[in-house]
Design goal:
With about 625 residues, the chain is α+β, with helices and mostly antiparallel strands. The chain folds into four domains: about 180 residues, YVTN repeat-like/Quinoprotein amine dehydrogenase (Methylamine Dehydrogenase, Chain H, 7 Propeller), CATH 2.130.10.10; about 70 residues, 2-Layer Sandwich (Transcription Regulator spoIIAA); about 90 residues, PDZ domain (Pdz3 Domain); about 140 residues, 2-enoyl-CoA Hydratase, Chain A, domain 1. The protein is about 15% helix and about 25% strand. It is built from nine helices and 33 strands. The strands form ten sheets. Strands 18, 19, 20, 21, 22 and 23 form a six-stranded antiparallel β-sheet that branches. A five-stranded parallel β-sheet has the order 24-25-28-29-33, sandwiched between helices. A hairpin with a 7-residue loop joins strand 11 and strand 12. Helix 1 runs parallel beside helix 3 and helix 2 runs antiparallel to helix 3. The radius of gyration is 32 Å and the shape is globular. The protein starts with 6 loop residues before the first strand and ends in a 17-residue tail after the last helix.
Amino acid sequence: WSPDSRWIAYSNPQPYGMYNIVLYDTQTGSKTDVTDTWYSSSGPVFSTDGKYLLFTSARDFNPIYSQTEWNHAYRDMSRIYLVTLAKDTPSPFAPENDEVKMDDNNKSEDKKDGGDEVKIDLDGIQHRVVSLPVPPSNYWGIWAGNNRVYYVENSAASRGSNLKMFDLKTKKETELGNNMSFVVSADGKKMLVRQNKNLAIIDLPTSKINIEKPIDLSNVKVKVNFSEEWEQIYVEAWRQMRDFFYVENMHGADWEAKRDKYAVMLPYVKNRHDLNYLIGELIGELNVGHAYIQGGDVVEPKRIDMGLLGAQFSRHSSGFYRVEKILEGANWSSSLRSPLTEIGVGVAQGDYIIAVNGRLTSTLDDIFQALVGTAGKQVELTVNSEPSENGSRNVLVIPIKDEADLYYYNWVQDNIRKVEEATGGQVGYIHIPDMGPRGLNEFARHFYPQLNRKALIIDDRGNGGGNVSPMILERLMREVQRANIARNVQRPSHTPGQMMLGPKVLLVNQYSASDGDLFPYGWRRYNLGKIIGVTTWGGVVGIRGPLPFVDGTDLRRPEFASYSADESEWIIEGHGVDPDIWIDNNPAREYQGIDDQLNKAIEVILEELENYRPLPDIPEPPDKSR
């Protein structure tokens, strides 16, 4: 809102993803574009004196280049921009006249902030945009008053968010604090700042903020009527679904009747878990994937991390524990550390754990009794190649708290070796666990090093979803434009680079979910190869982040969906993507280490390799002497 409450400035979404700044006049109902649609602009705010409108806009293009392929991306594109609302308002960055005026009678008082009518000349307003001389980054939370602009900045190079101030008189930027957010009081005199969990009320700062006396909230207590609060949360969950569900017909459900149907159970809700269960039953009436309710004011017990050694044990008749299997690790990575394989430990499969921190394992009901609470702490193991204390030795290890990543790493490495051995090193293997940062990392980690293979098996089984499948598909669907050579090069390269020339197959199962559903759909759309396995999960009505609830409840609302680009019909939801070759893994055989789906993929890819066509031979050198 403008200080005189006449004007509203807002960012207007465009159909192609950009935003522009618009002024709305509440008196006339007219709308005026403040910025064009060539650059995305957002976060408009009036200065408290009504002279300026400030906003952020992504107008800086400085590409960064990938280290894995010849590709680029843009980041840190925004600056803070300022519009002079009246034509006769000078730019704060205009050259100043240094001539001294001697007439004291012509002194003018500074205009007080707020109250007076804000003058806006709409004609030519798009040409009165100037940039604050701050570096391109990411900015938000702008507040402007008293010739100062406060904002939060975060760039790829910075550590966390930084609260900063730009002085329009001195034309200088001052860093006020790290990891800070802020709100300015209505009169523009005080600022509430938050740094981590500390809150403080201070005068508007002009230098580094030091929170010496944070607000003490230790004695703040709230009396809650849980019955009333839970009823409000229930109705709020119902309302959010009503207002944000991707189609207004609520899949044919009489949504008011559904609210009343389950509301009769509210008097019997006796704890927070009951409420989540009841809301879950309500939103389940929509018959859609991605409708979730979790969290809230739930008391969680403090958990003690179990120390784990990255190994499997069996109990020997002596009472000591035999090491049956040691999980392979990548000990250069802290997340894939396998304690018994680290340098100097020297424990091998078949060895015995005689004692843990001096406690004989033969006296324990379970070896893990001695490892409770040891995750991340130094532990002394007494080990021996025989089930005896005689001849044993002591080694120091640091147990880990979770072996899930190690088991996943071992499964992937075993599959890579299996495919390599079965195909004579001709075929690569990649598993994509989800369609988020982890999935992107796993794809990049295994895709580029295996481009020397002739073919590729992509494994989408168990993919938990996300939103990056288009990025991965774009790399897999590339086609060769030309071949390239240079002097003394024995093997030609190609353009585009970093692509798989040969055939590809895709593995899916019933746990290929969400964007893990959309990935095989796109795979088939682009004719990338055969799909092997069973029908995927079938849930592609997507969600965004949660909206606030009074107790922090996390409700996910299915807000957008996909339909066919060829005809007017919904896709995937409630059914999934069917494979080209149907084959299900028998649990008993899978437990024995037999992966029938992967075996079929190897069989199919070897058949397709028979038609593999490499790049043509390098032509004879041209003779241009004739």
